[in-house]
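Self-study notes.
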Amino acid sequence: MTTQATRSPRRRTVVALAVVLAVLIAFIVRLVDIQVVNADDHIADSMDRAFGSSQPLYGSRGSIVDSEGETLAGSILLYDCQLDPLLITQIDEDIVAGESTARSWDEVSADAAAIVELPVDDVRAIVTDALTENAESRFAYLKQSVTTEQFRDLADLAVPYIACLQHPARSYPDGAVAGNLVGFIGTDGPLEGLELSQNDCLTPTDGTRTFSQGKDGVVIPGTEREISAVDGGTLQLTIDRDLQWYLQQLIGEQVIDMRAQSGAIMVTEVATGKIRAAAEYPTVDPNDVTATDSEDRASRIFRSWFEPGSTFKGLTAAIVMDAGGQTPASTVTASGQETFANGASVRDSFQHETFNYTLTGALIDSSNVGISKFSETVSAETRYDYLTDFGIGEGSAVGFPGEQSGLVRPAADWDNQTLYNTAFGQGLTTTMPELAGAYGAIANDGVRMPLSLVESCTAADGTVSTPELPDPVQVVSEETATQTQAILENVAMQALYADDVEVPGYRIAVKTGTGEKSENGVYKLDAYYTTMIGFAPADDPEYLVVVTLDEPQKVKSSAANATAFQKAMTQVLKTFRVMPSTSTPEELPKFG
């Protein structure tokens, strides 16, 4: 029989156990809340306290490579080394108190200064200044961008308050090769060239590492959180590095030999519009930008325009055949200088009697009068429309930073003189890419392909993207293009400079231009911009070469370009293993 006396102790025991169980449950719930449910929040909160730290994790900027994958620009590892000023003072205090056998900051700072090549007083001042500003400072830069060797020497000091983080930097292994195209990086980011225009492809996404440290600088386990960095993409170009190197040496020699201000060589693939080389002199070495004058750090190929001179006669010939019913054998009579019915006066570069020029002959002798008379077979509006279709005044699809476009005023704005001057490349301007695109259309059976310099961008995850290019344009018929090719081949065969541009074993098509240079709206005296453009093999065009010189002094006509053109075309045909011609060209009559 249970009595009141025996029930009371039992009840008290049950109540006590219930209270203990409730307390335990409360502790368990709280522990689960702290360590599981809200663990991230608590860790994040701890990171904000005195011993919370964070470090950037740098991704590598993407490489720029040529058409074969050879590196033109890449990233190398440098290191940003930092100090923990508060930890330095704490360790020094422990040394003084006899609680540590570590080396003092005075000793370590002398070694660190020698490694990073700074005065020891400057290194010590870094810590002093940081603590003056914030007595609990946990961060100050010792030195940024130290080398791998310096990083290793600092690591050998084995002190907990020096930490070095990887910091990718830019390197250009071939120096000035394609420097005018690749561009360069400044302290605030990309400044020129493809480094600038393709920054979205190349830029990495940096990550972050956060953690908490104890008083001794040791990372507290379980407090580390990391957002990984993502490297930039690989930018592949259409150019061939070896060809680019050769042509840069070649144009440098030609500029110096002809005492020109500058020069350039551009190579395009006829069927695709891909730019295989774009060499110029002077150019820039992205590894040492300040060694180059500021005006030589960008690309004149894309940023300069000029009057094309007689190279436009090739375009006019194509236009009058396509729209004016002319043929390579059509004729006009032309003397050395003539005044037209509207009062415009045109003269040739040499005096001659009245010739019965064929259209082919007008281009062989580069007769301004002759091509002006042929231009009368097509209206000014039609010629303007054709020039636009050829891409003159339209720029290029490359989209190079600061790229210039030529200037062709609407036909309605042409005065009596401009009506004829535009037929032989005066009264308007163009650029090397525009001219290459126009002649590329002639070489490509009348189809103008958009020029391209970028092949693709391959992201870190392997995703490949390619540039969006405009559709090709059928400028003239295939028949007209074939006839124009034949005329330009006869220029290479019969012009005075024929022997200078001959490439043994290959059929070549070519045209020259000597454009007057203007300054403040007035033509400069005896100053010319010379051009030579052509393609090969003439019977089945594969590659096009343009050579320009700005104000050559030794030879002031486009003959100054002949040596460089011949050597450039020869090297292009070798580089791409183009088979020699097996057919014989047809010699077209110069006079009717």
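Second protein, same conventions, sequence then structure:
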Amino acid sequence: MSDHHYSNSKDEQLEQFRSDDKGKKLTTNQGLRVSEDEFSLKAGERGPTLMEDFHFREKMTHFDHERIPERIVHARGVGVHGEFEAYESMEEYTKADFLSKKGKKTPVFVRFSTVQGSRGSADVPRDARGFATKFYTEEGNYDLVGNNMPVFFIQDGIKFPDFVHAVKPEPHNDVPQAATAHDTFWDFVANNQESAHMVMWAMSDRAIPRSLRMMEGFGVHTFRFVNAEGKSHFVKFHWKPVLGTHSVVWDEAQKLNGKNPDFHRVDLYEAIENGDYPEFELGVQIIPEEEEFRFDFDILDPTKIWPEEDVPVKLIGKMTLNRNVDNFFAETEQVAFHPGHVVPGIDFSNDPLLQGRLFSYTDTQLIRLGGPNFHELPINRPVCPFHNNQRDGYGRQTINKGQVSYHKNSLADNTPETSTPEEGGYVHYHEKVDGRKIQARSDSFKDHFSQATLFWNSMSDPEKEHIKQAFSFELTKVESESVRRQVVDMFANVSMELAQAISANLGIEPPEQGGSTVTKSSPALSQENSPKKPDTRKVAVLIAEGFAKKEVEGVLEGLEKADADTDVIAKTLGKVKSDDGGELEVDDTFYSAESVLYDAVYVVGGKNTDSKFRKEAEYFVNEAYSHYKPIGATHEGKDLLTVDMKESSGVVVSEDMKNFGKDFVKALAAHRHWDRKFYSFN
């Protein structure tokens, strides 16, 4: 392998495929220069278009085929480039080269996505989020294809089509889009109770993240680390966002989907363009193979977590996302992930859902990307050389030379030849397998409720309230009374408190029996225990004519030092005048700026505040308050707050400007202030 040249940068590897058309001549796809691009070739000025107009036919044919089939799930996504850096050598556990030494860097491409909706759906539905990472390693591409939730709805891959059919828009009328609040989804849940744990996650705040930069990622399945000596450890993968894990509230999510359906992708794009590069630490949970059966759950069950208090997460590296794509279609839309794309040192377990995915993904790419050569698309190409006897097929780019395309051979000295493990050849872990052919599931997979209760026990009071509200909202949309009843009875096995709250909101009799004896909790599951920082939080600054320029600029400088972002919002665009005749540039107006687009509000007002500004600002502030967001008010802005607001948590009102900025930044870092006790159904 010493003759291989590896590119240190995915940028370098992609460069040959990029084009810059500025100053270039228009040509056909064959390179022929075009003399006319406004009129098709006709038989006379008013005659029919001629078939011999090859430029017209090429242009139109390409246009007719510009769209590829969207993904059945994870259709709506956004992709970004970045880099992964290892914290330390993991050679004790795995021979994977990209984890072999401290400081080793590997280019990556990450695609975030929603699961249910079409490409045209909105960014903030109640849904799981895809979190797929392609590592362009020197040993080949490694794909860690996960979600922002560590478990899934089913235990066996054979049930995946059933789950997706149930969660997608109902076939008789193709509604609702990107939503689980309908009969077929909840009928599936009630009759496939292995989904209980995942449903708890889906009804929690985890399903409506504040930002793609502020959500965890999980490999979901149990994989294997295998070291150079052939010793195996079971492993689960985690992505921990440096900014912490945070969410919006449901009323806010619904409004965001109307005000800005692209909220998440815009947030991610702007953060990277502004240099606020999202960072995620890669963590692993490791269990020695000989300890496979020491837990009270089956470690191969994809509906179960390994509680972090029982199996700690070891942080082994950090990923920094630092470059947006150049072309959405060529990169984000054409990227092809597969959990079977592994490198030496990473192998599979017998998780039956993972085993199903290992078949499904290649099959999916064949139909989406037009054939077996999707690996040759620039975004999918490895940075290391690849040689094999595969030939032809749709979209083939490699021009293979020579007459030999088979193994073994003598005409080409038996090349390309296989590699020994010492040369980097992949060898599957030699797991002993002994058993009868059977269609069944282990009894150790049959406990569907204990970890659902563990999740419930781990939630803070506000998080529990949000789960109750989510179930109530969803089941209110279910038309079948029988399905509603079945779901309530099912989740009585998780928590009687939860089941009784749902039944009360649905107007049905509470379950007569149920409850759980599980008392264990896992603090790591609650977002309340996640890091809280003011970094990259967006603050709306509401300003009117005659504002106190010197003091307000001091507050804005303090927010900037705290790495928060501010937008000045006024009645009109342009500039707003201060009390000393100075001016401040306006970023947005009440016509298009909404409180749901911001993490906090700083209301200033001004000496020339009029009734229109007051009306708009009061609505802005009241909505932010109802979503538990931090609110700061000084000068004339204090008059826009009610007495109850001024006395509430997270509302900073100060006559002393000396401490206001510091107190407001502290409130901003807290993200939400749930102890306002303002629990509405929203």
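Instructor comment on the second fold: Confidence is low (pLDDT under 50) at residues 1-7.
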